[in-house]
Amino acid sequence: MKKKYRTWNLAVIILCMLTIVFIVAVNYLVNPYNIFESPTYEGFNEQKIETKEYILKEKDLVNQKPDTIFLGSSRTFLGLDPSYYKKMVGEKAYNVGLAGASMDVELKYFEYVLKSNPKLKRVIIGLDFEAFNIFGTTPLGFSEERLSSKRWIKEDLFLNLFTIQAFIDSMRVIHENRNNISNLTQDTLLEDGSFNESVQLNIHQEMLNSGHNRFYEHLQEYLVSEQLLAKYELSNKNISYFKQLVDLCEENQIELIAFIQPAHALQWTGIEKAGLWEQLEQWKKEIVHITPVWDFSGYNSITTTSAENFDVYFDQAHYRKKVGNLILHKTLQIDAEKVPSDFGVYLTEENIQSHLYKIRADRDAWMADNPLIMQRIDELLPE
């Protein structure tokens, strides 16, 4: 009888082990989150559920060792194009833009690059007012432990290979690829770390066609979020993190180009309506006190374009790569004549005050000229 139980227990153990091996193999081969280097096949796993950029970019930085990195939030992720940069200067770049990244997260990724890539020559960083909010939270995808190792950490391996949820998502990927169902995404994260623009355009155009204008809906999300604009206090810690990054670049003889990101005029007006304009100006002064920056914010021929199509922007916060290309031309001073003359001002402590006065005047004029837009923004404000 005991031998029979032993045989049964052994059979159960073997079955469990085979099941785990099967789940791991399927999750690796299907690669539903697009983070492993397994092959992609049309009709099987070409379209994915999502891209976990916080994991994948850390691995790519070790393998690719670019000459230049782009740092910043999802604005950098969507807007700066390493392939265009390479055409301009002949050097390899990688986009380290991360959704929801605050200044401390950007600093930690930069420190990671310094440890793994001694040939780094240049850092181009897009700065966001929201990334310096004391009420901001650490993004869900971020893991400091991950940045301490070039290998996969146990948590990442477990969640993406061994879990039933990953297996369910793998089955969904296979099913929807075989049946040509378009609920998934395709190549959202390109090899150079930037975002596939066509994916975002398709999503936002479908929403606009169904009556949802993301320029205004996304602005409302900013206005009601305590991590973004509903509550705001300038974080001295995040200011110090930025200074640490500037100092590290100087110590390691790495050229740093910093710029304030060109959100749409709706975003800047929303900031004014939220009563945060003075804090916005103070933030700029703090930044310029550390290092000169290019300012693409405010009201100009790019930021005041139509909020009824996606020719220039995806929404009120995120600009397209054609705008990012203009930023590269202006900040690198290569074919700068291609850039509208009112787009981008090089800020120093000598000219910042006059610049802030001009933006205020431009703001007041634009708001006066667009009463219907002002009414629509007022309706978005939390009660």
Keyphrases for this structure?
15 helices, 383 residues, 51% helix, 8 strands, globular, alpha/beta, six-stranded mixed β-sheet
How is the main sheet built?
6 strands, mixed
Number of strands: 8
Mean pLDDT: 86
**Helix content bin:** 40-55%
Give the radius of gyration. 23 Å
Shape: globular
How many distinct helices? Answer: 15
**Multimerization status:** single chain
Strand content: 5-15%
Strand order of the largest sheet: 3-2-4-6-7-8
How far apart are the first and last residues' alpha carbons, in Å? 73 Å
Poorly predicted segments: none
Order of helices and strands: HEHEHHEHEHHEHHHEHHEHEHH
Structural class: alpha/beta
Descriptive account of the structure:
It is a single chain. This protein is 51% helix and 8% strand. The chain has 383 residues and is an alpha/beta fold. A six-stranded mixed beta sheet has the order 3-2-4-6-7-8, sandwiched between helices. Helix 1 (2-30) crosses helix 7 and helix 9 (214-224) packs parallel to helix 11 (265-273). The longest helix has 29 residues, at 2-30. The relative contact order is 0.12. The mean pLDDT is 86.
SSE layout and pairings?
Blueprint: H1 2-30, E1 47-48, H2 53-64, E2 68-71, H3 74-79, H4 82-89, E3 93-95, H5 103-116, E4 122-127, H6 154-162, H7 164-178, E5 185-186, H8 197-209, H9 214-224, H10 236-251, E6 255-260, H11 265-273, H12 277-290, E7 293-295, H13 321-332, E8 345-347, H14 352-369, H15 371-378
Parallel strand pairs: 2-3, 2-4, 4-6, 6-7
Antiparallel strand pairs: 1-5, 7-8
